[in-house]
User: What shape does this take?
Amino acid sequence: MIAGSIGTQGISFVSNLLLAWLLSPVAFGLMATVKVVIQGLRMFSDVGIGPSIVQHKRGEEPAFLNTAWTIQAIRGVGLWLGTCVLAMPAAQFYGQPELAYLLPVCGLTAVVAGLNSPALFSLNRRLDLRTLTLMNLGVQFVATVAMTILAWLTGSVWALVGGWFVTALATLVMSHTVVKQHRVWFAWDRAAAHDLFKFGRWIFLSTMVTFLAGQLDRLMLPRLLPEESAAATFGVYALSYSMVLMLTGIASELSGRVMHPVLAEHARRDPAAMEGKVLRARRLILTLAAFAVVSVVMGAPVLFGHLYPDAYGPAAWMAQLLALPVWFSILQISADRAALVMGDSRALAISNIAKLAMTCAAAVGGYMIAGVGGFIGGMALGTLAGHIVIQSSLARHGIGIVRQDVGFTAVAVGVGALGGLVPRAATGAWNDAPPLVWLLGAAVPVLGGLGVWALLRVRSELWRR
Assistant: This one.
């Protein structure tokens, strides 16, 4: 599972690097806006079909699966119609006329996705993560090859659009052919539909808040940027954020699929020992995360300043700043599973609301003061506000994580700031990437020392187990 996640992030990294040499930042900016609008529609119409199939006692019955598939197909058409309705307003709101036709075209992928076999969810139900991971890797590889060829031929945003369609079609075909399961068709079982909608109404409320809390920056920033440069600047921002976001993807896998079930088992067997179990599990995750975050801070100028085209140069300092809100996200990701295990799902909802409210105020205020850099600082404050809610929730259950958070934050932020600032201060390159010799000269000792520290801590934790 973890290897699959790393493989997925690796393919994404190579794909972004290749496409950056073939496409302009404007193409990435336009597609990032399309993605966030369509993702918003998906989240706001989520009725929890996947989780329902995974947890429902009838999740393997043909009548239940056929009904779920029918609802999913109808929703796919509804999503496409939604993109058609929002196309013109979105184009006017963001000042990007291309959205008027990109949104309806890309929205057709929702119709395709609506026809995916429920077998994809059944794999999760059966915990067949190997098949699911291999399918995802295969689809991503095919889409990357297709996008690269299309980018070389067209040099336009349509290469990314084509990649979306290849992803959707490949997933559709594989979902109906790779997994052995009965063939689904349109049907309506009233009892199954009732259970699906009853379960899904709570999913809808949860995903709505989660989407706004997690995607607010990508909704707000294109609107705040000057219209003449919004698409290009947002494209650079989106590319840098996609790199940093790889860290939270791996942390989510560790916390959701490893830490969560382990803590749930301990909660059933020995609730009194939960604090020690949570702290020990987080020590392992946060040690690896601290090394990864510092690696991004020190590697971003090398990557965007010396491997990417010059147009993507500002992504270096953006990625360095984005490491701060991402670090706070990792702190929360490694702790909120414990709140769920303790039965405090309410804390997660309040956390997202706190993050949403603080990000709205702080990010806009930060942008007015210091531009994109201030905006990212506001994001960090919003993410921290959400995590404080989780800290308080766990404290009520007798699980104290504040001291651990402060200790690891001191290491990650302190070492990251030192490693990131020294090359810039020594060369005076505050806006551009410092010379490669300075970057490597700082990275080798800092990452070497931190890597030894992380290795010893991980070894100690594993040995203790």
Remarks:
- The first helix runs from residue 2 to 22.
